[in-house]
Amino acid sequence: MTGARLPQGLLSVHALPADHHDGPWDHILVPDGIKERLLSQALLRLRHGRALRNLPGMPHGLMVLAGPPGTGKTTLARGLAQTAARALAPAGATTYIEIDPHAFPSEMLGQSQRNITTLFTDTLPEFAARRPHTVVLIDEVEAFAVRRSAASFGSNPVDVHRATDAVLAGIDLLAGSHPRTVVLATTNFPEAVDEAFLSRADLVLNLDLPDEATIAAILRRTLAELAGMWEGVRPLVCDDGLHRKLAVRCAGWDGRRIRKLVLAALAQRREVALDPNLLEAADLLTAAEAG
Ligand SMILES: Nc1ncnc2c1ncn2[C@@H]1O[C@H](COP(=O)(O)OP(=O)(O)O)[C@@H](O)[C@H]1O
Ligand SMILES: [Mg+2]
Q: 257 C-alpha to center of ligand 1: Å?
């Protein structure tokens, strides 16, 4: 479900698992252990949230993915919802909800605070009651839970405070009333996110820029995807020496930019653009040189 029929502040609502949501989880290549850690944290909460609620220092079901833009945070969060939903399917379906953090601009005076309160006290609990498990994504949360100690930006600081307070109160409320709910938040700027929000997280995971081995793996994967459409690209998929050389040139690039390099390589020469089977190592090296 997307669009105008949704309550205020929601971008989309889906029932998972659903076959067309497969993909994002495998699409993102990260160092060993990161996906396992993320998935395990989500499964623990979704499966045993009710029991864990009795522990002191109650888990909030909040997980934060932090890192520079283009490192796969949004894609991984979407993939996590589907992968967790698949694992939990024998115990029932999962509702996956994406929040629009830009739906609550702080210039809207007290209105933002009221809307956020409605979101957490009415809208989300209502959806969370529909299926056994619920995953909520708040993408780019820095727009939403602004660090109160740093909030100025020309907006009324009192309103920023109130809106952030409303988010924190809302997360506490949702965690208590619907313990089989996970709230995933992503941020490009963790230093702009309120400290009290971060401290509620059961897990804050930093996605760094890819290291050399990961860059090579992303290039190999992207070339393999191309070879699925144009068989002539196949020899480049196995050229480990080429991937290593390119990885050195792409040091410091994010994952999005690395994938785009392959696209740029296809557009270095007109004959390759017309027939990608003609792609050569030199095209990739030229594209990497050009940045
Ligand atoms: N680690 C990665 N492995 C493979 N592809 C990546 C990686 N990081 C980014 N990408 C590519 O960049 C795209 C955008 O990533 P996105 O999830 O929007 O990043 P972010 O939310 O961190 O800005 C992804 O869909 C993917 O194609
Ligand atoms: Mg993103």
A: 9
